[in-house]
């Protein structure tokens, strides 16, 4: 999810530069820009998607120059970091009383905010850096993990069942795969 907004933003920027430098493809570029705006316009303002983009180490704050957009995502992150427990690896299990009164303590928010600021200041852009910031990692996993949908898989197995009949029981796996792809993608063949 975190790759969507930076990719669309970069694509829109490249199309704008191409529109300024091109003379013959302006209607095509305009159509592409309006199509992107129509399809992804609302998503580009979604705080959850902006926060997911900020929590991908490759992008953080560098994918846009719009400070208002970044602030929207950072506010979303900070509000959700308040709800996350501080995960410190060397902590010992506490009693039920400590767990009961844990929402009252303010150390949770301060520790998570420190982790966020350290994450944003860190120059490393690999995903491994998230392991150093457990609260940021937890929120990043929540925001950047899409929910699986089974409809496409069910359609694939249903179509494969229609192709793999008793008359075709000796079909080679490569031929079955080709027939399945041809059956599911008729507009491409």
From TrEMBL:
UniProt source species: Knipowitschia caucasica
Q: Which domain of life is it from?
A: Eukaryota
Its recorded name reads HAT C-terminal dimerisation domain-containing protein
Q: Which InterPro entries match?
A: RNaseH-like_sf (IPR012337)
């Amino acid at each position: 999810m975190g790759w969507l907004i930076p990719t669309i933003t970069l694509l829109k920027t490249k199309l704008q530069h191409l529109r300024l430098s091109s003379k013959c493809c302006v209607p095509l570029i305009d159509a592409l820009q309006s199509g992107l705006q129509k399809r992804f316009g609302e998503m580009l303002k979604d705080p959850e998607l902006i926060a997911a983009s900020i929590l991908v180490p490759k992008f953080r704050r560098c994918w846009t120059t719009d400070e208002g957009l970044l602030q929207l995502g950072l506010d979303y992150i900070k509000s959700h970091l308040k709800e996350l427990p501080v995960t410190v690896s060397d902590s010992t299990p506490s009693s039920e009383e400590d767990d009961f009164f844990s929402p009252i303590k303010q150390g949770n928010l301060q520790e998570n905010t420190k982790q966020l600021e350290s994450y944003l200041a860190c120059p490393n852009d690999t995903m491994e850096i998230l392991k150093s910031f457990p609260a940021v990692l937890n929120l990043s996993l929540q925001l950047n993990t899409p929910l699986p949908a089974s409809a496409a898989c069910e359609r694939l197995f249903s179509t494969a069942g229609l192709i793999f009949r008793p008359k075709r029981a000796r079909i080679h796996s490569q031929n079955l795969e080709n027939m399945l792809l041809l059956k599911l993608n008729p507009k491409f063949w």
